[in-house]
C-alpha cells in the first residue's frame, strides 16, 4: 500500500477519516461505554459510507489486522474495541430517513436509538428500542434488542425488514425475507458474526398516546413485597407494562429498591398496573406522564453524548424462566442483596417478546425475568475488588440451579464462552449458524462478538 504517512493505507478515496495513536482525536475516538474494555487499536477508520467500510476491511485483510466493528459502543463485552487491530467505526453513519407512508425507516449502521426515536416522533411514529437513547441500533437490532415496546411489538431484531451488509469478502449484499433469507434469519440475533450492517430498513409503530415514566422508591422493609409485586406484573401484566426493578446499597449500607414502571398503555390500564406495583407498600411515588423520548432519557439523561466512557463496568446477565418456582427465584434475588458493595447494582426486567407472525429468526424466545448484576466504578485501582463482588454474586446465581447459564438474548452476552453461545441458541440453531458462518465468513474475520465459529 502507498500512504502519505508510513504504515498508513492510501486514504485518498476515503470519504471518512483514519485515526492512529499519534493523531489528535484518537483518544476520544477509541473510547467506548465501558472504559475498562477500551483498547488501543492501531487504526480507527471513521467510515462515511459502505464503500469506506469495504476499504477498511480490505486494509485489515492486507495488514493482517484484527477487526472490531463499532456501532454505538455500548456492547457489554467491549467488542467494539481491540488492541493493535482495526476498528470499523460507524459513528458517522447515523442517518435516519423515515417513510411515514409505509411506517418504515432506513437507518445507518451507526444510528443510536435516540436518533431514530427523535426522527420517527416527528411523524407520530416510534421504533422498538432498548430503554436508553445512546445504545446503537447496530448492536441492538442484530442481537435481539428489548425495551418498553417489546411485549407489544417484539424485539428490535423482529422489526428489521431489510439489511444492507458488507460481508467478509468485501461484497455489499441485501438480506430480507425474500433476498438471502438464511442470512436474514441469522442477522436477526447473531448479526455481528456475519458482516458490517451499513443500513437497515426497520418497521415503525404509532407513538403510544400516553406514557408514564418516573419511579417508585420503596423502604427497605418493603423490598420483599415490592419485588413480588413487580414479578407478578413482569409475568402477567399487559403488553404495555415494562417495569424495571433496580437494587443498590444506600449510603448507610442498607439495600434500596426503585421500580421504574415504564408504562405505554391507556390511562386506566396504567393506573391499575402502577397501583399493583404499590400494593401493600408505601413508596415515594415520583411517577408522571412523559413522552417515549422522555422515558428513554430518564435512565440516561446524557444520552446524546457521542463518545461516552469515564466509568468502568462489569455486567453479568441471567435468565430466570417464568416456568421456574417463583418463590425460590424471589428468595434467591433477595438473598443476594447483603453481598452488594457501594458500587454494585442489580436490575430485573421482563423478557416477554410479542410473537411476530412471519418473523422467523435465530433469536431465542424464552420468556422470563432478565437479571443483570452490574458493578460500576471509576478508579482502575478498584478493578479487582469490584470485579470480585460481581463474580461472587454471579457464582451464587449459577450454582443456585434456578437461572439459565446463558441470557435470553445474544446482545446480553457479556463474558464470552462458546458453550454459553451454543446454550443460548440451542444445538440445532447453533449448528445452522456455523454452516452459514462457513459460507459468509470462513476465516472468522467477524469474531469480536458473541462468536459463532465456522463449522460444517
Ligand atoms: C447502558 C446500557 C443500556 C443497555 N440497555 C439495553 C436495553 O434496554 N435493551 C437491550 O436489549 N440491550 C441493552 N443493552 C445492551 C446493548 O443492546 C448491547 O450491548 C448492544 O449490543 C450494544 O450495541 P452498540 O451498537 O451500542 O454497541 P457496540 O459495542 O458498538 O456493538 C456491539 C456488538 O454489535 C456489533 N455491531 C454493532 N453495530 C454493528 C453493525 N452496524 N453491523 C454489524 N455489527 C455491529 C459490534 O461489532 C459488537 O460485536 C444496554 C447496554 C448498555 C451499556
From TrEMBL:
Q: Which PANTHER family does the record cross-reference, listed alphabetically?
A: BINDING OXIDOREDUCTASE, PUTATIVE (AFU_ORTHOLOGUE AFUA_1G17690)-RELATED, FAD-BINDING PCMH-TYPE DOMAIN-CONTAINING PROTEIN
* Signal peptide region: none
Locate the FAD-binding PCMH-type domain: which residues? 37-207
PROSITE patterns hit by this protein: FAD_PCMH, OX2_COVAL_FAD
Task: Return the InterPro entries for the record.
Answer: BBE, FAD-bd_PCMH, FAD-bd_PCMH-like_sf, FAD-bd_PCMH_sub1, FAD-bd_PCMH_sub2, FAD-linked_Oxase-like_C, FAD-linked_Oxidoreductase, Oxid_FAD_bind_N
Listed Pfam families: BBE, FAD_binding_4
Give the SUPFAM superfamilies listed for this entry.
FAD-binding/transporter-associated domain-like, FAD-linked oxidases, C-terminal domain
Record-stated family: Belongs to the oxygen-dependent FAD-linked oxidoreductase family.
What's the cofactor? FAD
Q: List keywords of the entry alphabetically.
A: FAD, Flavoprotein, Oxidoreductase
Q: What is this protein called?
A: FAD-binding oxidoreductase
Amino acid at each position: 500500500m502507498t500512504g502519505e504517512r508510513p504504515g498508513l493505507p492510501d486514504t485518498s478515496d476515503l470519504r471518512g477519516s483514519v485515526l492512529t495513536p499519534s493523531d489528535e482525536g484518537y483518544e476520544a475516538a477509541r473510547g467506548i461505554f465501558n472504559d475498562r474494555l477500551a483498547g488501543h487499536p492501531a487504526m480507527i477508520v471513521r467510515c462515511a459510507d459502505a464503500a469506506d467500510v469495504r476499504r477498511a476491511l480490505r486494509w485489515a485483510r492486507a495488514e493482517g489486522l484484527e477487526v472490531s466493528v463499532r456501532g454505538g459502543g455500548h456492547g457489554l463485552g467491549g467488542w467494539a474495541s481491540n488492541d493493535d487491530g482495526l476498528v470499523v467505526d460507524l459513528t458517522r453513519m447515523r442517518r435516519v430517513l423515515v417513510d411515514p407512508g409505509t411506517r418504515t425507516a432506513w437507518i445507518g449502521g451507526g444510528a443510536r436509538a435516540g436518533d431514530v426515536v427523535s426522527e420517527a416522533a416527528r411523524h407520530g411514529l416510534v421504533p422498538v428500542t432498548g430503554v436508553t437513547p445512546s445504545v446503537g441500533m447496530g448492536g441492538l437490532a442484530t442481537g435481539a434488542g428489548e425495551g418498553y415496546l417489546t411485549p407489544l411489538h417484539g424485539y428490535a431484531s423482529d422489526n428489521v425488514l431489510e439489511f444492507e451488509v458488507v460481508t467478509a469478502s468485501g461484497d455489499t449484499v441485501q438480506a430480507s425475507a425474500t433476498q438471502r433469507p438464511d442470512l436474514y434469519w441469522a442477522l436477526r440475533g447473531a448479526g455481528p458474526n456475519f458482516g458490517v450492517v451499513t443500513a437497515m430498513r426497520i418497521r415503525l409503530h404509532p407513538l403510544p398516546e400516553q406514557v408514564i415514566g418516573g419511579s417508585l422508591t420503596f423502604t427497605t422493609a418493603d423490598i420483599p413485597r415490592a419485588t413480588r409485586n413487580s414479578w407478578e406484573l413482569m409475568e402477567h401484566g399487559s403488553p404495555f407494562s415494562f417495569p424495571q426493578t433496580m437494587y443498590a446499597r444506600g449510603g448507610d449500607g442498607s439495600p434500596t429498591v426503585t421500580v421504574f414502571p415504564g408504562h405505554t398503555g391507556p390511562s386506566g390500564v396504567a393506573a391499575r398496573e402502577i397501583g399493583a406495583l404499590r400494593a401493600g407498600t408505601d413508596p415515594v411515588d415520583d411517577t408522571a406522564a412523559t413522552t417515549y423520548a422522555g422515558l428513554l432519557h430518564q435512565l440516561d439523561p446524557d444520552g446524546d453524548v457521542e463518545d461516552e466512557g469515564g466509568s468502568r463496568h462489569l455486567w453479568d446477565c441471567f435468565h430466570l424462566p417464568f416456568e421456574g418456582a417463583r418463590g425460590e427465584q424471589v428468595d434467591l434475588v433477595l438473598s443476594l442483596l447483603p453481598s452488594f458493595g457501594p458500587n454494585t447494582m442489580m436490575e430485573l426486567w421482563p423478557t416477554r417478546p410479542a410473537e411476530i407472525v412471519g418473523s422467523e429468526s435465530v433469536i431465542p424466545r424464552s420468556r422470563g425475568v432478565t437479571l443483570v448484576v452490574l458493578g460500576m466504578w471509576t478508579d482502575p485501582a478498584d478493578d479487582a475488588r469490584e470485579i470480585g463482588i460481581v463474580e461472587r454474586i454471579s457464582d451464587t446465581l449459577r450454582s443456585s440451579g434456578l437461572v439459565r447459564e446463558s441470557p435470553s438474548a445474544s446482545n446480553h452476552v457479556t463474558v464470552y464462552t462458546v458453550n454459553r453461545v451454543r446454550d443460548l441458541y440451542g444445538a440445532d440453531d447453533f449448528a445452522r449458524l456455523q454452516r452459514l458462518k462457513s459460507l459468509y465468513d470462513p476465516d472468522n474475520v467477524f469474531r469480536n462478538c458473541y462468536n459463532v465459529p465456522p463449522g460444517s
